[in-house]
Amino acid sequence: MENFNTKDIIAILLKNKKGIIIVMIVAAIASSVASFLLKPKFKSVAVVYPVNLSPTSEESNTEQLMQYFTSEEVMEAVAKKFDLYGHYSLNTSEEGYKSLFKFYYAENVKISPTLYESIEIEVKDESPKMAQDIAQGLIDATNDLVYGLKRERLAEYIANTSKALNNEFKSVDSINAKLTELRVKYNIIDITSQGKYLSKKSISDKALNESEKNLWEGLKTKNTEMEKLSNFFNGQMKTVNEISNQQDKYLLDYNSRISFTNVVSKPTLPDKKCFPVRWIIVSLSTLSAFALACLFFILTNKATRKVD
Fold first, then answer.
1. pLDDT tens per residue, range 14-43
2. 97 occurs within a structural domain
3. 229 pairs with which residues across the strands?
4. pTM value?
């Protein structure tokens, strides 16, 4: 097999330089014409920071917010709001239209974290206003998604605290019923005051009437039980108040509309196209044509030598 050294290759290229130049000129003209046929696109950019998010597992708030931005739910919400299937001229009755939509969506929507723990949103579209609207729609849809999920969790918390409160109230009612029964049975109103009164009366040798004897008997035999019931009742009421306060916080959060994105830079309204960049297209096409032409002439020359 015949090998080419550098001198041979240079010689072949110089010999066919006219052909190479013609190929490059044709490629440059063709790519330039093609670039004018491509529809221009405009890019809207927005930057947001995560706020009001609770950390889960080992994910940072930025990573967590990224998951929401890139979720299927957000994509579908934006597609529905702006009729992106129709906007991208997709026939929803044809098979595989969703895969094609995801391809277009991925080409036009870029969401990425920055070095400063923020999230940059880039949306490309043939309409500058549509690009801006979709970028804003992504922020709104992400907020709605997080808000909806948070309300679902809060609804569970509220239901659980309601069950806990019901159980605590049953216990409180049971204790209160026992205390009431003892108070009514022995006519006990205030253990301390009534106890002091009866003690003084008994010491002064004054006879107790039937009602006072019954009260005295109740104070002597049921005092400890009533004290335990009262302490237990107070403890239960303290628990009820704590659960009730927690439930109030859950209800406040459930009924409050908050944002989960701190918008540092609002979606821009582009006034200059980002695609196509004609000089890049022409340059790449010309360089590719040059490389292919060189390869063609080198291989052709090699084949000719073999025949000779």
1. 888 888 888 888 888 887 777 666 678 899
2. no
3. none
4. 0.67
Does a structural domain hold residue 16? yes
Domain extent for 23: 5-38+278-308
Q: At what angle do helices 278-307 and 17-37 cross, to 10 degrees?
A: 150
User: Taking the CB of residue 213, how many other CB atoms lie within 10 A of it?
Assistant: 12
Residue 225 near residue 146 (C-beta atoms within 8 A): no
Q: Is residue 125 part of a domain?
A: no
111 burial class (0-12, 13-18, 19+ CB within 10 angstroms)?
Answer: buried
Q: How far apart are CA 20 and CA 298, in angstroms?
A: 11
Neighbouring residues of 112: CB distance < 8 A, sequence distance ≥ 6: 119, 120, 122
Residue 284, token pair as written in the block: 């790449």
Helix, strand, coil % (nearest 5) of the chain?
70, 10, 20
Long-range contact set of residues 237-240: C-beta below 8 Å, sequence gap at least 24: 237/172, 239/168, 240/165, 240/168, 240/169, 240/172
